[in-house]
């Protein structure tokens, strides 16, 4: 046998790729699942675009008495809703993110295993509570409790612009809605951050402690740098939940469509999702298309926020 034949004989087994049925089935299922997600996303976008675009481009008629006529045009209608959506979500994130990170850090590094397991279970159960239950709790329990506090803030802290304009005694204002939103997104931030903190290399933590660092200094030197991207990702996911929340905000917030930053008055901005939930059952004709166009705007906002978050996380990972 020549050297050429020997090489060909040796190369033949390695060149023949064995395709097992299990590999083929798994690849088919995973590929189909990935394509299905993209197809559903594209279908939702197409539906919103086709159904909502007429409300955006159609000129306002003199006899128009729909939602667009109340605000002058579609953008006049959706503008205050975009403001309310972003402002309430920002307030919720401002409250929930530091608390969620703190709770996750306490569970992962500052308590023993028995209590950490119990607290982790409670946090996970909190994520399973339906939003309508949070709305009922907010309107029946939280709002009456916070009402006197809001009145005190409106009376003694009115020099702060956020608390100016007086306070509604019922407690149905943007502050209560933001607190309910913060509680709803808290489990997302806590659960994801806790898992990221637990994945910090043990050798990094022990090396920091061996050099004389306190436990908090060890967290600053080892845990936070390692978990920075994961913490940011948890915040982005929580923000996406806050942007699209419907029932809790609808039930708690006494909305008037105003555009202002005050938190305690009865003249509160509302959100896109809450507006759709309130008005869609009685809408017809152009009103329906206007509400669907509002959903298209909310879809675009959520997509932009998540895309920006992914881009920032990718840049942080590269660095």
TrEMBL record:
Per UniProt, the keywords (alphabetical) are:
Cell membrane, Membrane, Phosphate transport, Transmembrane, Transmembrane helix, Transport
Residue ranges of the TM segments: 35-57, 77-106, 118-143, 174-192, 238-259, 291-313
Topology versus the membrane, per the UniProt entry?
Multi-pass membrane protein
Q: Where in the cell is it found?
A: Cell membrane
Domain ABC transmembrane type-1: from-to ranges: 82-309
Which coarse location class applies to the principal site listed for this UniProt protein?
membrane
Annotated Pfam families: BPD_transp_1 (PF00528)
Q: Which InterPro entries match?
A: MetI-like, MetI-like_sf, Phosphate_PstC, Phosphate_Transport_Permease
Describe its function.
Part of the binding-protein-dependent transport system for phosphate; probably responsible for the translocation of the substrate across the membrane.
Q: Which family does it belong to?
A: Belongs to the binding-protein-dependent transport system permease family. CysTW subfamily.
* Protein name as it appears in the record: Phosphate transport system permease protein
In the record, what lineage is assigned to the organism producing the protein? Bacteria, Bacillati, Actinomycetota, Actinomycetes, Micrococcales
The gene name on file is pstC
